[in-house]
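Entry:
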Amino acid sequence: MSLDIPFKLLLFFSSFSFTGVPAGATTAGLGSQHAQLLPYNNQRTSHFFNVKTFGAQADGLTDDTKAFLSAWNKACQATGEVDIMIPKGTYLVGHNSCSTDFNCKLLPTNVKFLAMNRTIVRGITSVNSKFFHMALVECKNFKGSKIKISAPADSPNTDGIHIQRSSGVYFSRSLIGTGDDCISIGQGNSQVTITSISCGPGHGISVGSLGRYKDEGDVSGLVVRDCTMIGTSNGIRIKTWANSPGRSAATNMTFENNNMENVTNPIIIDQAYCPFASCTPMGPSQVKLSDIYFKKIKGTSLSAVAVALECSKGIPCQDIYLEDVHLELATGEKQVTSTCKNVRAKYIGTQIPPPCA
């Protein structure tokens, strides 16, 4: 998961009315089961509420959330027949403050699996989530396949699949295109296998972010293989927060036979992760990274730096292996390069870009 910018949901409405709200009905939002959508017919009823009267701009730029909520609340307080008028326009609703607030209020996940055992999910589709599309928390022996996930490339925090405090997880043969990580492997996971995933658009397949909270669990036994990243901002990424409040570890992870097609950062370790506009420099990350293997990673990079390994100066990475890596610059103009901090990686076989000096 990353918390990059405020969530923006553009709603494109034709003129219609909400009608038939029972007396005394209460509702928390526009998705109330008490509301019925009917074509607007210019015939006023005893109670008529136009969202523009409450300040909605319908310009696609102004946050119209308060106007919608005000109109909805007034309608719910009325008795008898009620119309809510939403004139044709582009409405921006649903902001949160995650770009500036570390403790922002999170939006709802499309579907969450909590403390499930021996679960099989196959052939489902998730479209345009407000937050994560799918989340696994404290699950065991979970299998998912033939899953389709879709959201706009600029929709923040819409991770395709987020996995946390789970074990024995297997995802395969799925198509994921979203505005954040296609798959994010959070803290406390063990024995997770990700295979044959097509990812794009999105932020690639990520471990983390780790080290944000106290008493996080370790990550171990991760395998990501036979996946393809297409036009993503990252390929394989490991991200940990600086100034971690406690120690944890991510170890024994293998990324093998993964293909990058026009990916900005094909291989990246970022142990100074900060999703906000700016972060005050603090102490180093306390997440220990070790026994990590990048094998047979090939394809094209949109940036000159195709391999970036920035480890923690407090706990440098140990036993990082790169084997048969072949990444070319997408434009073909020059050879890509590598950068390394606080790590001495070990190299086997083909190395394009060349190892760090």
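The chain has two domains: 7-16+47-95, 106-352.
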